Amino acid sequence: MKLIIDTDAGVDDAHALMMALACLDAQVECITTVVGNIDLENVVRNVGTVLDVMDLDVPFYRGAALPLVAPWKFETEFVHGSDGLGDLKLRPPARHFPAAGHAVIQIIERSKESPGDITLVAIGPLTNVALALRLDPDLPHRLKRLVIMGGSLNAVGNTDIFPAEFNIYCDPEAAHMVFESFTDSLLVSWDATLANPLPTPVFEELISQPGPRAALYRESCDGMLKRLSEAGYEASVLIPDTLTMAVTLRPELILASENHHVSVELTGSLSRGQTITDHRNWVRVKPNVVTVTEVEMGGVADLFQQFVAPV
Ligand code: BDR
Ligand code: CA
Prior knowledge:
With 311 residues, this protein is an alpha/beta fold. Helix content is 40%, strand content 16%.
């Protein structure tokens, strides 16, 4: 399976990258970066750190440093720390640096080199994907599939616009363009994230392992879990981007899914960035996404285990 991973790394993005990089049947063609959880320079630095710790060479590219229309700077430190990787204390000396060239051009060119073969996994705001679409409207026909982490299908989001999920809220115009143009994306929404947490005993086992990979996993989670528990949130381990990567790598882990039409609210003063879902499946509107609802978490745990295990 050939992958391009578009990421705003991000704690859970870093774990999703590790998961894909450790998966023997996945070939990560390149990693493209986008602003979101943290500014672009930190996103790029964090991708480099993941490759350093995994000790693997995969080309990565700078992408959009700002959303299409919306301003960028959100309060994301609570989850991702001030560096986007949980205020990581010890980083190995950097050995991986971004390659020359733009992320958006890489998405287009690589899909031309391997038409029908590449799955694009978007685990950040959809800015790069939207820019690629504007430059190359045929892109959806050349990708094997687009997989998106984003949206809240039942209006329970995770941003200060209460019904909106972060990746869509960060760049609603880009998300609108993507949902209008791709007719068969696989969507892992915030609802799916809430419904499929990583079981706490699995998490405890993962963080207790030796080696640099487990150390990166453990240390990047630390601050977020501490802040969540201090704020009185139930300490369940939510894994939006790794859940998305797991169902990309192992589609057989999807136990239940639904087909819906999803669009993006662009103007609502209380709902900008909300995904609007046609739950009635009205006959005149064709579904444009397959939304994951239930995932076999034992299989997800195995994929986590693969990437934290010492090599
Ligand atoms: C999404 O937003 C980010 O905080 C995570 O990395 C994930 O991609 C969840 O809403
Ligand atoms: Ca992300």
